[in-house]
Amino acid sequence: MNIALHPFDALMDITPRPPVVFVRGEGGWLWDDTGKRYLDFIQGWAVNCLGHSPPAIAEALTAQAKLLLTPSPAFYNAPSLELAQALVTSSCFDQVFFTNSGAEAIEGAIKLARKYGALHCNGAYEIITFDGAFHGRTLAAMSASGKKAFEPLFEPKVQGFPKARLNDLDSVKQLIGNNTIAVMLEPIQGEAGVWPATDEFLQGLRELTTQHGLLLIVDEIQTGIGRTGKLFCYEQAGIVPDIMALGKGLGGGVPLGALLATEAASCFEHGDQGGTFNGSPLMCAAGLAVLNEVGQPDFLKSVTDNGLHLAGELQRISARHGLGSVRGQGLLLALDLKRPIGAAVVACALEEGLLLNAPRPDTLRFMPALNVTREEIALMIAQFDAILGKLGVARCVG
Question: Which residues of 5-19 are buried (b: 16+ CB within 10 A; e: fewer)?
């Protein structure tokens, strides 16, 4: 045993991490092991929808842990039944399979679509996805993604994911063939830099898939659970998908995802799908606490209002510093920096006690807690303004 290892060395080196160790979080704030405080506008990549360690989730986990952790997925448990019913009641779907992550929910969606193709469409198995898409890091999810950095990795990939272009219906039409069974997309491509699918495109996609007897799968891992101002982003376009994948915000900080489907699309047979920890009472208790908070009167309206306010403040800063446009919806926003300074901004912000994310060299992404306050937005904007000045991003005069 190598006892000389630095504690950091015991973790696999899979991403460049700054030498900061977080030990406590509360709402919009994190503290490291030196006592330094950070304003968090990443929130675990849109995971902590109620902020860090919210009392509602902490209390739900504590109460459930004293009752039952998991009886095995071979048996029913009360929290999973209650959460499934709440999701069905709040959506256009009829059935739920709980997972431990969004990527696992995507795997389930892929399997469900291929099962549907085997049963009803002469073995059709191809799922049209999109350039720039990000669906997770399992092998099939990476294969379905349209992220350029994934292309040379872990070959051979899982076959059957031809790529169309977002907001280009003709590019989808050109890929439909005898082996096509579904189209899968994120309503807003988060990792690509927060690029929304237009309402017109989503509506056209629903019409096209219905016309060809194809399933429409929405990946709402990042956009779901109120992030865009509706409980689910597909509602914004007024469409009814066949399958949906959830993750991130559903657990509010604990590992919980879900695969939802209409009754017509729910074609798994016994033995087709499972998982040791899927639908555990402990995780589902957290999911119930999240849905209860997000479902409070005016909660989603506040997401919309604060999203518009944040977008306006970012536009003001952009105009002052000669930056680009703001895009996105609700509290999933991006700012076009118009130059490759994203990494420098993020690094400088960390030094100043502000956590920001740059999914692309020329883009910043903002994913605060859904209950972020106007005071926290004002503080972030002031810090961001100062950081741009510190980096020498010239202000526009007049």
Answer: eeeeeeeeeeeeeee
Q: Which of 247, 281, 288 is nearest to 73 (CA)?
A: 281
Unique residue bearing structure tokens 């997401």: 303
Question: Is 130:148 a contact under the CB 8 Å cutoff?
Answer: no
pLDDT in tens, 167-176: 999 999 999 9
46 in Cβ contact with 271 (< 8 Å): no
Active site residue 66: no
Asked whether the beta carbons of 99 and 116 are under 8 A apart, the reply is no
Determine whether 219 is an active site residue: yes
Task: Based on DSSP, count helices (H) and strands (E) in the chain, helices before strands.
Answer: 12, 17
**How far apart, in whole angstroms, are the C-alpha atoms of residue 30 and residue 40?**
7
H-run or E-run covering 352: none
Say which of 41, 93, 161, 219 is annotated catalytic: 219
184 strand-pairing partners? 217
Q: Distance between CA atoms of 191 and 198, rounded to whole angstroms?
A: 17
Instruction: Indicate the pLDDT class of residue 394, thresholds 50, 70 and 90.
Output: low
Tokens for 346, please give them.
């993020």
Q: Which helix (H) or strand (E) holds 127?
A: strand 126-130
Q: Residues 93, 98, 134, 161: which is the catalytic one?
A: 134
The residue from 130, 242, 248, 384 that is catalytic is 248
Reply yes or no on whether 362 is catalytic.
Answer: no
Type of residue found at 90: S
Q: If 0-12 CB within 10 Å is exposed, 13-18 middle and 19+ buried, where does residue 171 land? A: middle
- pTM equals 0.95
Contact by Cβ (8 Å): 206, 240: yes
Question: What DSSP element (H or E) covers 183?
Answer: strand 180-185
Query: 300: which residues sit within 8 A by CB, 6+ positions away?
Result: 226, 229, 230, 231, 294
pLDDT digits (tens, 9 = 90+) for 289-323: 999 999 999 999 999 999 999 999 999 999 999 99
Lowest mean pLDDT among 149-158, 254-263, 356-365, 388-397: 388-397
